[in-house]
Write a structure and sequence with these properties.
The structure is a single chain. With 197 residues, the chain is of the alpha/beta class. It contains six helices and twelve strands. Helix content is 26%, strand content 30%. A hairpin with a 2-residue loop joins strand 10 and strand 11. The protein starts with 5 loop residues before the first strand and ends with a helix. The model has no long low-confidence stretch (mean pLDDT 94).
Length: 197
């Protein structure tokens, strides 16, 4: 069992339960993380979708922002979906006032780029590194990536926009794979965690 990575899901706000289920299905030991001492016990972390401004403020309030930044800088694998992608960006094109990011991927992200809640949609997305055909992506008030730096690798696009990026141990998608029952994105992340564990 020692090969089973312990992966946390940042449980300040957002679709935490679905990620815990998806990670468990991908052979990880999944647990919610709310405090710095819980963060210290995990091999990797998922930052879920939700409301990026609220999540940023709660991370500061709960004393999580600096420990998160330190762990990411130290090489802990992190996977951000939707709002999580925004938090992993070095820069947000249109940040709300007081909105901070954890950073980790050299990219500029546009919030709510695919439209409002009522413009949510599902789409098949071809992701580099994922076998077995396209991943079903659920886009809910989703961001997209305006541009990436030299070290960031674009692994998926949809409609001419960047929707999945990887930089070393950090992975981010605009869409929510945890809402589909297809756990291949989580499987990719679990393998990333296992590789550095």
């Amino acid at each position: 069992m020692s090969d089973t990575p312990v992966i946390g899901v940042l449980a300040l706000q957002g679709d935490v339960r679905e990620h815990l289920i998806a990670l468990a299905s991908a052979d990880a030991q999944a647990r919610p993380v709310r405090r710095p001492e819980e963060l210290a016990e995990v091999d990797g972390l998922v930052i879920p979708g939700g409301e990026s401004t609220t999540m940023s403020k709660l991370a500061v309030l709960f004393g999580m922002m600096e420990p998160l930044r330190e762990r990411v800088r130290a090489g802990m694998p992190v996977y951000g979906t939707c709002a999580g992608m925004i938090l992993l960006a070095e820069k947000i094109l249109d940040p709300r006032s007081g909105q901070e990011t954890v950073g980790g991927i050299d990219m500029i992200v546009r919030r709510n780029a695919f439209g409002r809640q009522n413009e949510s949609f599902e789409a098949a997305v071809e992701v580099d590194g994922i076998d077995g055909g396209p991943v079903e992506g659920v886009f809910i008030r989703a961001p997209w990536v305006e541009s990436v730096g030299a070290e960031a690798e674009v692994i998926a696009e949809h409609g001419g926009h960047i929707v999945a990026v990887r930089q070393r141990n950090v992975l981010a998608t605009s869409f929510h794979p945890e809402l589909t029952g297809d756990h291949r994105m989580h499987g990719l992340f679990v393998e990333m965690v296992r590789a550095v564990k």
